[in-house]
Amino acid sequence: MKKIHFRHNLRVALLVAFILGLVSTSLAGWQAASAAVLTHSSVVEYSMVTGASGAGNMAISFYGATASATSVSVNLINTAGGLLNGGATVNTGSLNVTGTGCTAFFPAATGVTASAPSWSTPTLTFTTTSLSATTQYCAIISATGGFIATNPSAAGVYSVQITAGSISQIVGVDVIASDTYSVTGTIAPTFTMSFPGSDSFTGNLSSTAVTSTTGVTVTINTNAATGWFLWAADSQQGLYSTQQLKQIPSVAAGSNANMASLVGSEKYALGVTSATSGAATTAYADAGGTTGGGLTSAATGFNEIATGTVPYANDYVVVKELADISATTPPATDYSDTVTLVGAGSF
Predict the structure, then answer these.
(1) Running DSSP on this structure, what letter comes out for residue 250?
(2) Residue 141 domain-assigned?
(3) What DSSP state is assigned to residue 261?
(4) Pair (135, 88) in one structural domain
(5) Which of 87, 189, 196, 323 could connect to 152 by a Cys-Cys bridge, CB 3.0–4.6 Å?
(6) Residues 208 and 293 in one domain
(7) Spatial contact of 149 and 56, defined as CB atoms under 8 Å apart
(8) CA distances (Å), 330 to each of 211, 237, 323, in order?
(9) Do 105 and 143 form a contact (C-beta atoms < 8 A)?
(10) Are 131 and 123 in contact (CB under 8 A)?
(11) What is the domain range of residue 150?
(12) Is residue 12 part of a domain?
């Protein structure tokens, strides 16, 4: 009896083990099923206004298309919340689909090569070259005279379905009252002028040749539409020595003098040798370093010595003084003068 009982238990155990083995093998090979969907899917509307008829474009992007698929569709009414169900209108004329420009929205994507776009309410379909399941793609959809569908009149979130081959994804599109904002700014009128505070003659004044100063460079910056003006005045209308109580007087104000013809006499003048974009006025043009004009005092008025005609950055105007003396002009180390320069933009 003990031996028979042992065999019975053994058979049961083997049967249970066999059944468990089958179950275990079956479970090991079982996997949950799941539907494939497009990833990285996006729809971008731009240049559109809620309720505006026939305006705007749509950029789409997707990843994970059916391998070797050659068809892509965009459904505007797939669900109750679709664009067309929201009251959007459709423009069915001259549809366009291109991969050019869509990487501005989706830099990591590849623009599709699209042809033969067609519209059959509520879906736009276009053919492409063979798609890869591991590439992100993008495209821009438009139509002559506007996009295939305008926005609904009411702001809100609407759905659009993208299908690439047999794989789809529904994306949300947020329709807002306006996709633009205004930017305002002001540019003030500007005029700046700068120059060194001193100038010196290049050597001792001479009774046999015209002597000139090194010159001061006046730097003018302005955004004035018609350029700038530069005026000058002379505090004492000549070089003056306090030691000798002696003046070397200016030539006549407002007229150009040839200082080379005045060598041996006591005369003083101001000349403008150059201007980057402007020019010296006739009375103060320093031709060859020997011509210039006299100045009135600031109390009497200013003389226009140079002018520019266009807006300019770093307009350089070089102003010099010229002097002649006679053989009997008293010696001194303090012959000096003060010249006042003022400028303005021509707005």
Answers:
(1) B
(2) yes
(3) G
(4) yes
(5) 87
(6) yes
(7) no
(8) 16, 18, 14
(9) no
(10) no
(11) 39-175
(12) no
157 plus 48 within the same structural domain: yes
User: How far is residue 212's CA from residue 331's CA, in Å, rounded to a whole number?
Assistant: 18
Q: Is 130 exposed, middle or buried (0-12, 13-18, 19+ CB in 10 A)?
A: exposed
Same domain, 219 and 322: yes
> Has residue 347 been placed in a domain?
no
What is the token pair recorded at 290?
């020997």
* Total number of domains constituting the chain: 2
Cα–Cα distance measured from residue 333 to residue 347, given in angstroms and rounded to the nearest whole number: 44
Place of tokens 């974009």: 277
Q: Which backbone phi and psi does 16 adopt, to 5 degrees?
A: -65, -40
Q: What is the pTM of this model?
A: 0.64
Which token pair is 47?
A: 């240049």
- Asked if residue 50 belongs to a domain, the reply is yes
Of 175, 201, 216, which residue is a domain's last?
Answer: 175
Return the number of other C-beta atoms located less than 10 Å from residue 202's C-beta. 10
Please provide residue 13's backbone torsions phi and psi, each rounded to the nearest 5 degrees: -65, -40
Over range 7-19, report the average pLDDT: 34
User: Which residue is it, tokens 């007087």?
Assistant: 249
What does the pLDDT look like over 89-140, one tens digit per residue? 777 667 889 999 999 999 999 999 998 788 888 899 999 999 999 999 999 9
Spatial neighbors of 297 by CB under 8 A, at least 6 apart, are 233, 234, 235, 236, 237
Q: Are residues 209 and 118 in the same domain?
A: no
Read off the CATH number of the domain in which 101 is found.
2.60.40
Structure tokens at 53: 């008829």
- Residues with Cβ within 8 Å of 134's Cβ and at least 6 positions away in sequence, in order, are 64
